[in-house]
Amino acid sequence: MKFTKMHGIGNDYVYVNCFEETVENPSAVARYVSDRHFGIGSDGLILIKPSKIADCEMDMYNLDGSQGAMCGNGIRCVAKYAYDYGIVNKEHISVATKSGIKYLDLTVENGKVSQVKVNMGSPILTARQIPVVSEKEEVINEPLDVNGKIYYITAVSMGNPHAIVYMDDIDHLDIEKIGPAFENHVAFPDRVNTEFVEVIDEHTVKMRVWERGSGETLACGTGACAVAVASVLNGHVDGDSPVTVKLLGGDLQIFWNRQENLVYMTGPAATVFDGEIDVSFLK
Ligand SMILES: N[C@H](CCC[C@H](N)C(=O)O)C(=O)O
């Protein structure tokens, strides 16, 4: 199986061009290629497929083989791959995902995509659609008991579920312990991606993320969008201008246009190497 290793500010995936390749069992392949010792090493697998309703389709799998409905860092790399490898030859493209069609604007430098702006669609705040179990219609700064400690969470979906928690110091967070406790909490029937956020100023936040199905990653695009929305809703940032979200792997610019109720994410995409791996033994 031919693949291309790419990343969006350190959130790295193995990409397969399914205009040319066929991947029979993507969950098993995702688990194998993601292993950083016995495989290629990545946060998961992303298939770039032909589409009848968009320029291409993104099909995303986490490190544990579970399928994700949307991937912000991933879709920027899908757009870069599609342009750089000749699937498309235009700078405004559409990508179909499990959470709907997304529209992207590409910045091309020296014939290659360097930066991508994505219309990530509207945030979902209704508890039962996220889903999160709550008596409230929306979960904004509501208490949740996690391992006997009360955390105040804001729940947002960008096509995938996110729980946002604000803290004074995220650098010394024992994320390996608290991350799984949130991920598998009974309040989240489909599990959850959890973002731990420190507010820097009214235009800047800093975050770490424990991803559903992948653990701590260096960045999460949908998570950064969910954090920007939650930060506006909780009055932590100025909602009239873009928010700089600082992640371990780099920064993303996120703007929630309240008039349109659309979230825009702008950030880089990078290709690391092309390769080939035998996955024929996987059933
Ligand atoms: N890293 C991705 C999010 C993956 C979400 C996945 N962990 C799930 O929802 O199951 C991003 O950049 O948006």
Automatic annotation (TrEMBL):
The keyword Isomerase applies. Its EC number is 5.1.1.7. It catalyses: (2S,6S)-2,6-diaminopimelate = meso-2,6-diaminopimelate. Keywords: Amino-acid biosynthesis, Cytoplasm, Isomerase, Lysine biosynthesis. It is an enzyme of class 5 (isomerase). The keyword Isomerase applies. It is found in: Cytoplasm. It comes from the Bacteria. Substrate binds at N11, N62, G72, N73, N160, N193, E211, R212, G221, T222. Its main location: cytoplasm. InterPro entries: DAP_epimerase_AS, DAP_epimerase_DapF. Gene3D superfamilies: Diaminopimelate Epimerase, Chain A, domain 1. The active site is at C71 (proton donor), C71, C220 (proton acceptor). One of its GO terms (cellular component) is cytosol. The record marks H162, E211 as: Could be important to modulate the pK values of the two catalytic cysteine residues. GO terms for molecular function: diaminopimelate epimerase activity. GO terms for biological process: lysine biosynthetic process via diaminopimelate. It holds the Pfam family DAP_epimerase. Pathway: Amino-acid biosynthesis; L-lysine biosynthesis via DAP pathway; DL-2,6-diaminopimelate from LL-2,6-diaminopimelate: step 1/1. HAMAP family: DAP_epimerase. Homodimer. Catalyzes the stereoinversion of LL-2,6-diaminopimelate (L,L-DAP) to meso-diaminopimelate (meso-DAP), a precursor of L-lysine and an essential component of the bacterial peptidoglycan. Belongs to the diaminopimelate epimerase family. This is Diaminopimelate epimerase. It comes from Blautia wexlerae.
